[in-house]
Amino acid sequence: MFDMKALILLQRQHSKIGQAVARTLKDTHGVTDFCAYVFSPDTERWIAEEQNDIFYQPLLSDHKLHAGYKNEIVDTDFIKQFETTYGPPHLWHYLYSDRKLMMSIGPKEETTTVIDPLYGHEDLLRIFQARARPIEKMLREERPDFILFFNIGAFAHLLLFHIAKKLGIRTFILDFPRIGNLVSLTEDYNTLTGIGETYLKRQNATVEDEYVAKAREFIARFRRTGSLDLEYLAVDAAIINPSKQNPLLRFESIYRSLSYFAALTKNYWRNRGIFLYGETDMNPLRFLGHKIKRRWRALHPPMNLYTLPQAHEEFAFFPLHYEPELAILLLSPFYFDQIMLIRSIARALPLHMKVYVKEHPSMPTRRARSYYRELLKIPNVHLVPHTIKSTELLNAPGCKLVTAITGTVGWEACLLQKPVITFGEVFYNALPLVRRARSLDDLPALIREQMEKPKINESELLNFVAAAFADGFPFNYAGLWYENSVEKLMQDAGIVELCRRLMAKLRETRVMKTQ
115 with 142: CB under 8 angstroms? Predict the structure, then answer.
């Protein structure tokens, strides 16, 4: 045990989990001091008034910093100096990654990535200053030993991350290697750093250890069943819509929907003048209109726009991403327009090939039919039914290439030894079978190269999956979102292991520095 200071990000459902982590770090691992960044008035009130276990000093509130932007005078010299000190990335990247600021989410009815900022250029500069100055001041003065993020996607997240990196403050982010219920602690949002490092160490390994055995079993099971056993998806489905699991619970689902609408109305009138992240602060009437649209689309799917896969056709598979989400806004900042990207892929393919586009399983009722019609104006694009499993398309003889921005289908293609081109930063880019596209000008040559490439060596794939098992640990993360008892959360094996691994990484660094 040794004295340390931690900065914890506390946001919505993550708040109670973050508090449980902080208490565990304090009680078990000797972390003595804490500061925090919070994202909602409810979280701030809870921290200040209802808990007395952790004293967060200082505590910055995102909504309060935002409220001060109107008093800011644009300081071009400060902005230039900040960009010199903390870039790259360029500072627009900080803003464009924030779907609330740049796409007016959540009040928009259609959840597609359309640039429709809430503010003009001058106000965005003020908003930038209103957060950048106090965040930089806090990190320079407090010098926490590490920052723990539960996700990254908001503008303030990126400020905290990049300033911390320049100041030598460790950053840890909870992320998913997309294997069962495993999570990993990564030090960079662009990839899973622990898996990459472990993979490099294991590349020349020939020992059959427990991780190789787990990897072999997982790969075989996936190829047999087509399932990654992603526990957090099953948990989300059961929590968010239990009527899908049991028709007898339909009345309970209706009751929960009405209760949610009532809570939405209350939150909107209480917080309508505050800049907040989250659906629960939407205008309830616009929210209701959006839900009615989604119900109508569910009852009237675009069957006339679908084309069934044809056995004789060779194709590249492009899975549409859920949007707007950090998987494209943050990790693929210049390829977030999926229609534009599909248009580029389609014209870069050999003339006889098709692009099979399949909707994300969570998006069929969220996009307007006009979106799909625009896609189908591209001559060699087919929209296949979203009910077809991705692995059916991946295993089809005609599937010659998988093109993905950063999605899970690209990972599934790797496990099935299909060539992959990605357009964003993702952990499986480390595999030899995957190429990251950097320029659309070079895309035709890259496609040709990938389709002619031999399959990945099975031992390389095995070592990579083994590295994921070695670096990851089981954590029922989504299942804990709605648990309000911090005491119960502290007893969860995943939180206990998260804290243990976090401290192990910090101790390793301290030992290396003293040697």
Answer: no
